[in-house]
Amino acid sequence: MKLEGEEKTKTLEKMMRTTLLLCLWALSLSYAQLSETEEAGGEEEAVELFTTDRTKMAAATSDFGYNLFRALAGRDPKTNVFLCPISVSAALTQLSMGASPDRSERWLYRALRYHTLQDPQLHNTLRDLLASLRAPGKGLSIAARIYLARRLRLKQDYFDLVEKQYGVRPKALMGGAKDVSEINDWVKQQTSGKVNSFLSKPLGRNAGVFPVGAAYFKGKWITRFSQSGAMEDFQLDGEAPARIPMMQQDNYPVKMGVDSDLGCTIIQIQMQDDVSMFVFLPDDVTQNMTLVEDSLTAEFVQDLSMTLHNVKAALTLPVLKFSYSTDLLPLLAELGLDEFLADTDLSKITTQTAKLGSLNHKVVMEMAPEGTQYASSSPAQAPLTYRVDRPFLFLVRDEASGALLFIGRVVNPRSLRI
Q1: pLDDT of res. 2
Q2: How much is the average pLDDT of 373-394?
Q3: How high is the pLDDT of residue 370?
Q4: Domain named Serpin: which ranges (predicted)?
Q5: Closest CA to 393 of 306, 276, 288
């Protein structure tokens, strides 16, 4: 587990670096566009986002998500990785309500970053945050639930408590193929039919506790793309290019910046209902994205958003439709939960020994060209080009709270499918 002092030092270093993010646009940005931006009102003043209980909760769930993503991405730097961290946070928080306060709850809170909060109404704050993120316009559907083996002597008070707090009741299972249908049907219903076949095989019989988290995301751009579906090359490291559908639009309004330390160009694209997508595009197709992944924190992304400049660019993005599933349980030890896994005390759920059997997670996402507005038809003075035609990292963030909704790394789009 990382020391608090080391984390603070790293955060400060990241924030100091990002203040220099856009000193010069030597690679592509013209002086004319920067002058236009400053004449319109100059650089935006930095705004401290994480000041309320809800935004502090959003920062905590985001930092948990970035830590989880780093652990998952570190398994193999040459694979695609996708997560909806807030769904995993929701599931593990439900689990924490059944944990002993002196040990297991404390360990879970630390991994979930709740130990950074001073919020006596923590569960109410998370419930309200989840409700705001489920607003229909944001395009996010979340499913999070605790499943339990029926062989355990289960305490109904726990079931009632979770249901009252989060509106979802933990479920006792019989074991076997019927449980697969039960879980798959529930996840499908919670995601409006978008996440299918959540489980492909029965849960193990020896453990007893099975948190699940799933999500579907299809946000809509504010500015639509006029061209979509043209098959173009996506560069791959050490392989022939993949032919994939792309969407393109000239004079697309984005916020953009170059980070020479991370070796990437970054854009922020506005979506409807106060959501935005950040895309981190490495300078070279062979470049390892570990530096970018290691830099991500809630504070870093907030500072980055305030540092990027408003420009118009010829923007080309892949048309992606994919699903991704994995068992996150092996990663929990890397998040500081090795003691929790070795000595799980869920005394508010059962008096029997109950271990986690899995932490199944599945996400489905679509990136399509739809939007509510058309781009300006007048040509930019010095057009910029931002072409996402090689491995990249992206994240989707709720701007009102700062909560991380979705994060992914696309290395090879050939293997992506729904």
Answers
A1: 44
A2: 80
A3: 72
A4: 66-413
A5: 288
The Cα 162–Cα 346 span in angstroms is 14
Nearest-5° Cα angle at 52, 304 to 114: 85
Cα(187)–Cα(212) distance, integer angstroms = 9
If DSSP codes are grouped into helix, strand and coil, which group holds residue 102? coil
β-pairing, 404-410 with 392-398?
antiparallel
Per-residue pLDDT reduced to its tens digit, 307-323: 999 999 999 999 989 99
* Span 195-214, average pLDDT: 90
Distance CA 269, CA 281 (A): 13
Among residues 283, 292, 260, 242, the alpha carbon closest in space to that of 74 is found at 292
Per the CB < 8 A criterion, the answer to whether 94 and 146 are in contact is yes
CA distance 362 to 324: 6
Report the CATH architecture of 83-134+140-217+324-365: 2-Layer Sandwich (3.30)
DSSP at 353: -
Instruction: Look at the chain and count its residues.
Output: 418
pLDDT for 300 equals 96
Q: 371 - beta bridge partners?
A: 221
Query: Cα–Cα distances in Å, from 152 out to 131, 157, 172, 175, 350?
Result: 32, 14, 9, 12, 7
Q: Write out pLDDT tens, residues 221-254.
A: 999 998 888 999 999 998 999 999 999 999 999 9
Which sequence spans correspond to the domains of the chain? Answer: 4-43+219-320+367-415, 83-134+140-217+324-365
Q: Which residue is listed with tokens 């993010």?
A: 21
What pLDDT is recorded for position 36?
42
Report, in this order, helix, strand and coil percent for the chain, each rounded to 5: 35, 30, 35
User: What's the distance, CA 97 to chain centroid?
Assistant: 24
What CATH number does the domain located at 4-43+219-320+367-415 have?
2.30.39.10
Hey, CA dihedral for 395, 398, 402, 404, is it positive or negative?
negative
Two tokens at 262?
């991370």
Q: Which residue from 203, 216, 219, 211 is spatially nearest to 89, judged by alpha carbons?
A: 211
Whether 18 has a pLDDT exceeding 60, the answer reads no
Query: Rounded to whole angstroms, what are the CA distances from 352 to 92, 111, 344, 361?
Result: 20, 24, 11, 26
Beta carbons of 149 and 127 less than 8 angstroms apart: no
Contact 233, 241 (CB under 8 A): yes
Among the listed residues 170, 173, 181, 171, the one whose alpha carbon sits nearest the alpha carbon of residue 149: 173
Return the closest-CA partner of residue 415 out of 322, 285, 327, 326. 322
